[in-house]
Specification:
With about 675 residues, the chain is an alpha+beta fold. Among the domains are: about 120 residues, no CATH class; about 160 residues, no CATH class. The chain is built from 23 helices and 23 strands. The strands form 6 sheets. Strands 12-13-14-19-15-16-17-18 form an 8-stranded mixed beta sheet, sandwiched between helices. A 7-stranded mixed beta sheet has the order 4-23-10-3-9-7-8, sandwiched between helices. A hairpin with a 3-residue loop joins strand 15 and strand 16. The protein is globular.
Length: about 675
C-alpha cells in the first residue's frame, strides 16, 4: 500500500452567486408568506429582500447563542427556543425596518416563519439552489472548534453509517434504478465494494448491534424475551435493559472505544460520547454538546419542523392511496404512526446527520451512526414501495453531504455503509388467519391462558428518546412492560420469530415435558401452514428443528422425513444450535414459513415487512466499504464476525497502516450457559 499522503483540508469558500440567489429566494418566500398571513405585510419585493437580509444576519448571530447554552434536555429545550427565536427575529426585523415589514404579533410572526420556510425550501429545490449546504458546514465547523481542539492528522478516521433494515438485494435494485445515486456513483467509480453478510437467528437491531458494536451478542434470543426466574420481560427498546445488555458484554474491545462517538444507536459500543443512544439515555438529560451543530443553524429548526409536517402529510396521502388501490399486503398506518414516521424520517435523521458533521470537524477517530427511517417506513408501507424507496433516497442524499464534508475535516475519513439486517415482506400471521400466535397457543394448552406483550415498533424508541428530553423521563415511552403477564404461557413476537415460554417451570422445558403437560401444543404449532419450524430441546435427542413433515437433529444433522430447514439459510442449523444454548431461549422458538417463490413469510406482530428470524432478505444485510480495504476471506456469518472485521478496519485506519485481512467466517457456537 502506498504511504498515506499528508492531509491538507480544503477551505470552505463562500459562493457569492449562489448566496445571492439564495438571498433572493428567501426574500420571495417571505413576500409570499406575508401575503398569506393576514396579520403580516411586506411592502414589495425590494422590501422583502431587505427583510431577508436582516433575518439572515440575525439568524447567523442569535441561534448560536442558544446552542452554546448548557441546557438540560438540550435537544427539546434548544429546538423549542430556536423555533420561537425564528418568530422573534421577524419581530426584530419589523422594528429595524418598520417601513418594509409589519407583523401584528408573535403568532403572525411564527406563521410567517413557517410558511416562508416551506415556500423557500420548495423554491430552492425547484431552482436547484442550495447554498445552505455551505452555511451548514461552516456552522458545524465553527461549533466543533468551540467544543475543543480538533484532532488533526494524516491517519484517517472512519465513519460507519448504518441503514437499519436494508437488505443487499434491495440495495442492488436501488442502485440499478437510480434511487441511491451517491452510493451508485461510489460503486461505479470503483471507490467502494459491496459484500453480503449473514445475520444470526435473531435478525434484529438489538442482537446485531450487540455483535457489531460490542463483539458479543450471546444470549439475545430476540428483540424481547422473558427471564423465567424473575418473570420479567427484557426488551431492546428499554434504556434500562439496553444499559444492562451493554454492561454485561463490555470488555474494553468495543468498536468505538478510544475516542469514538455513538449517534442514534441502541448500544454505544464503548463510545466516549453519545446522543440518541438507548443504552446511554442518561447522557440525554444533561447538557449535551452533540446537538449544537444542529441548533446553531436557525434555518435548520424551522425547516425541520416544516419537513416533519410535510412527511406526516405524505404518509396520510400514501396510506389513503394504498386503501384506494386495495394494495396487499397492507399494514396498519393510523394512530400515532404518521407522527412517528415524520419524526424518524426528518427529526431524528437530521439530528444524527448534524451530530456526525460536528464529529467530523472535531476529527473524531471513529463514528457509528444509525439511520432508521428506511426500516420504519418499510415496516408499514412495504419493502420496496414508492414511499419506502423515497426514504432511502433521502438517506443517500444525506450521505452525499457527509461525503462532501470530508474535504474540509481536519483529518481524512473513510466511509463504510452497512446494514444490521434486511427485511422480508408478507401479510401478518393475524391477517392471514384472523387470530394471533398467542391465540393459537392458548387454545392448544391443556390448562391456563396464554398472555402476550404488545410488540410495538422497535424504531419508536428513537423518537421516544427525543421525547424523554422534553419530559425529563429516565426511560423510553415506548418501553415494554417489565413484568410478564401471570399466565401459563407467555407469547412474544419478534418479527417472524415467535417465543413461547411455559411459566409453570422456572427452567426451560424439554420436548418430552411439554408433550406431557400440553399434549396438543407442539402438534398444533408444527402442523400450522404458516409455521416453518420449531426449535425445541429433547431430553433424548438434544436440540431439534421440527416441521410439519419432518425433524432435523441439530447436533449431527440427521433428518427424519422432510427437512424443515429446507429453503432457509444454509447455516440455519448452526444458528439454531447456537441459540439453543442461550440461557434465556424460549421453551419453544417458532419461525414462520417462507415461500421462496412469492418471497413471502409472515410476522407474529403487525408489520408487513419484518425481520427477527429467518427466511428471505431479512438475513441478508451488507457491507459497502472502501475498495482499498482488504476484502475478507469469505462473507461474515454472524454479527460478531462483522465486529472483528470492522475493528480491523478501524485499527488499520487510525494507525495509518494497511487494512488487515480478516478470516471472518468463524464457527457459530454458544458458550456454556
Amino acid at each position: 500500500m502506498e504511504p498515506i499522503p499528508a492531509w491538507s483540508p480544503e477551505r470552505l469558500r463562500l459562493r457569492p452567486v449562489r448566496l445571492l440567489a439564495a438571498w433572493i429566494v428567501s426574500g420571495l418566500a417571505i413576500l409570499v408568506a406575508a401575503g398569506i398571513v393576514p396579520g403580516a405585510e411586506v411592502r414589495g419585493a425590494g422590501g422583502a429582500i431587505l427583510v431577508a437580509a436582516i433575518v439572515g444576519v440575525l439568524n447567523a448571530l442569535l441561534p448560536p447563542l442558544i446552542a452554546a447554552l448548557r441546557l438540560p434536555f438540550m435537544v427539546a429545550a434548544g429546538f423549542l427556543l430556536v423555533l420561537a427565536l425564528d418568530a422573534a427575529i421577524l419581530l426584530i426585523a419589523a422594528d429595524i425596518a418598520p417601513e418594509e415589514l409589519h407583523v401584528d404579533g408573535f403568532a403572525d410572526a411564527f406563521a410567517v416563519s413557517l410558511i416562508a420556510a416551506a415556500v423557500g425550501t420548495a423554491m430552492a429545490a425547484l431552482a436547484g439552489i442550495d447554498d445552505d449546504e455551505g452555511y451548514t458546514l461552516r456552522v458545524a465547523r465553527r461549533v466543533a472548534r468551540r467544543t475543543g481542539r480538533p484532532e488533526s492528522g494524516d491517519a484517517p478516521g472512519i465513519l460507519f453509517l448504518e441503514i437499519d433494515g436494508l437488505a443487499l438485494p434491495v440495495l442492488r435494485r436501488a442502485i440499478r434504478d437510480g434511487n441511491v445515486p451517491n452510493m451508485a456513483r461510489w460503486l461505479a467509480d470503483g471507490s467502494h465494494r459491496l459484500l453480503e453478510w449473514e445475520t444470526d437467528l435473531s435478525s434484529q437491531t438489538g442482537a446485531s448491534q450487540a455483535g457489531i458494536l460490542l463483539g458479543d451478542n450471546e444470549d439475545i434470543p430476540a428483540f424481547r424475551w422473558v427471564d423465567k426466574e424473575s418473570g420479567r420481560v427484557i426488551s431492546c427498546s428499554s434504556p434500562d435493559d439496553c444499559a444492562e445488555i451493554e454492561r454485561r458484554r463490555t470488555t474494553g474491545d468495543g468498536l468505538l472505544t478510544a475516542g469514538g462517538t455513538s449517534r442514534g444507536n441502541l448500544l454505544s459500543g464503548g463510545a466516549d460520547a453519545a446522543i440518541l443512544t438507548v443504552s446511554r439515555v442518561a447522557d440525554e438529560k444533561r447538557s449535551n454538546p452533540g446537538y449544537r451543530a444542529f441548533l446553531a443553524n436557525g434555518n435548520n429548526v424551522t425547516r425541520t419542523f416544516v419537513l416533519f409536517l410535510w412527511e406526516v402529510t405524505l404518509e396520510l396521502i400514501a396510506a389513503a392511496r394504498q386503501r384506494r388501490r386495495d394494495v396487499h399486503p397492507r399494514g396498519h398506518r393510523g394512530g400515532t404512526y404518521p407522527l412517528l414516521r415524520g419524526g424518524m424520517c426528518v427529526f431524528v435523521r437530521d439530528l444524527v446527520v448534524f451530530s456526525v458533521l460536528q464529529d467530523m470537524f472535531r476529527g473524531v477517530p471513529a463514528i457509528y451512526a444509525t439511520f432508521a427511517s428506511y426500516d420504519e417506513v418499510a415496516h408499514h408501507s412495504g419493502l420496496e414501495r414508492h414511499d419506502t424507496l423515497e426514504a432511502l433516497r433521502k438517506l443517500d442524499q444525506r450521505f452525499g453531504l457527509l461525503e462532501r464534508a470530508r474535504r474540509f475535516a481536519p483529518r481524512p475519513y473513510e466511509i463504510v455503509v452497512l446494514s444490521d439486517h434486511g427485511q422480508t415482506q408478507g401479510a401478518t400471521f393475524k391477517q392471514r388467519n384472523g387470530y394471533g400466535l398467542d391465540d393459537l397457543v392458548e387454545r392448544s394448552l391443556s390448562r391456563g391462558e396464554a398472555g402476550s406483550v404488545a410488540a410495538g415498533d422497535e424504531n419508536a424508541t428513537g423518537m421516544a428518546r427525543a421525547m424523554d428530553e422534553a419530559t425529563g423521563r429516565g426511560r423510553s415511552g415506548a418501553r415494554d412492560p417489565a413484568e410478564a403477564p401471570k399466565s401459563e404461557a407467555i407469547v412474544l413476537g419478534s418479527g417472524n420469530l415467535g417465543l413461547v415460554y411455559l411459566m409453570s417451570s422456572p427452567h426451560r422445558l424439554t420436548l418430552e415435558q411439554i408433550d406431557e403437560r400440553h399434549p396438543e401444543l407442539i402438534a398444533a404449532l408444527r402442523s400450522h401452514p404458516h409455521v416453518g419450524f420449531l426449535l425445541v430441546r429433547s431430553a433424548a435427542d438434544g436440540a431439534l428443528a421440527i416441521g410439519a413433515e419432518g425433524t432435523h437433529r441439530l447436533s449431527d444433522g440427521e433428518v427424519t422425513g422432510v427437512d424443515p430447514l429446507t429453503g432457509f439459510s444454509p447455516n440455519a442449523a448452526r444458528h439454531l444450535l447456537r441459540t439453543d444454548g442461550f440461557p434465556h431461549v424460549a421453551d419453544i422458538m417458532v419461525n414462520s414459513f417462507y415461500d421462496p417463490v412469492s418471497e413471502e413469510g409472515c410476522a407474529f406482530e403487525e408489520l408487513i415487512s419484518f425481520h427477527g428470524g429467518m427466511g428471505g432478505y431479512q438475513t441478508q444485510p451488507f457491507l459497502f466499504y472502501p475498495a482499498h480495504f482488504e476484502e475478507p476471506h469469505g462473507s461474515p456469518v454472524g454479527a460478531e464476525a462483522v465486529h472483528r472485521l470492522l475493528r480491523a478496519w478501524r485499527r488499520s485506519c487510525n494507525d495509518g497502516a494497511r487494512p488487515l485481512e480478516a478470516d471472518v467466517p468463524a464457527p457459530l457456537q454458544s458458550r456454556p450457559a
